[in-house]
Structure formats: structure tokens, C-alpha cells
Amino acid sequence: MTAVGKLLLGILADFKWINTLYLYVATLIIMGLALCAIPFAKSYVTLALLSGILGFLTGNWSIFPYVTTKTVGIEKLAHAYGILMFFAGLGNSLGPPIVGWFYDWTQTYDIAFYFSGFCVLLGGFILLLAALPSWDTCNKQLPKPAPTTFLYKVASNV
């Protein structure tokens, strides 16, 4: 499903009438909701369906560089992509011990799925807030003032 998600999300990102940033935010929000729904999956079919949805939505990595470029600009892409990869690695490194701690504490994985879903939802909503058009007013170029000309008078004609 990840391969299908990468292909279809990449195709959707090419359409001019689809805002790729909002497409990425939608994948994050739906992914967070699907993660939170996993504890409610009581049958194999429901769990398989949620796993397929999560697999499809992790295909959003195919539009991740484009969204990063659109968010920070091409000049800051290398730095922003490095910082994002750092935080992704941090999550991948710290996630399993935190989930293990949650399991040791509660003897169930439910809180771990709620926690991970909450983190993905939080990231999606923060990106949504950052992507709103009202924040774009800071990036608009102000009109440059007309150059000031000075007239100097000669004090004496010697």
C-alpha cells in the first residue's frame, strides 16, 4: 500500500487544482486518526483495513520534499530537510522505548497508539496553521520607497 500511496499521492500532487501542502496535511491528519483508531480494531479485517490505510498514507513521503520546498523556499531547503530528517530520526529512535514504557506501565498498547496518533495529529495541525494564507502576509514584499534626492546649495561662488 505504501508503493500505491507514493504513486497516487505523487500523481495527485501534479494536478494544478490540488494544493500539495493541504494534501500533505490531510494525509497527516487522516494518519493520526487511523493510528488512534487501531485500539478499537477488534477483528482481523478492521486491523487489516487500518493497516492498509496507514500504509497508503505513509506514501506521503513522495511529496515531502516538494512540501518542504514550498514551505521554506529553495534557498533554505537543505537546512530544513536536514532538520526534518533529524526529528524523524529522533522519533524513530525514541518511539520504541517510549512505547515499551507505555506497555510496561499499562500492560496494553492502546496508550502507545493514542500517543503516536496524537503526535501525528499535532504535527498535521501545526503545519496546517503554518500553511494558512493569513501567515503569508509576512512574506509579501513591501513597496520600496522612492529614492530620496538631496539638493545642495553652494555657500559661496568664489
From TrEMBL:
Membrane topology listed for this record: Multi-pass membrane protein
Keywords: Membrane, Transmembrane, Transmembrane helix
Provenance organism: Aotus nancymaae
Molecular function terms from GO: monocarboxylic acid transmembrane transporter activity
Annotated localization: Membrane
GO cellular component terms given for this protein: membrane
Chief site of localization: membrane
Pfam families: MFS_1
The protein's name: Major facilitator superfamily (MFS) profile domain-containing protein
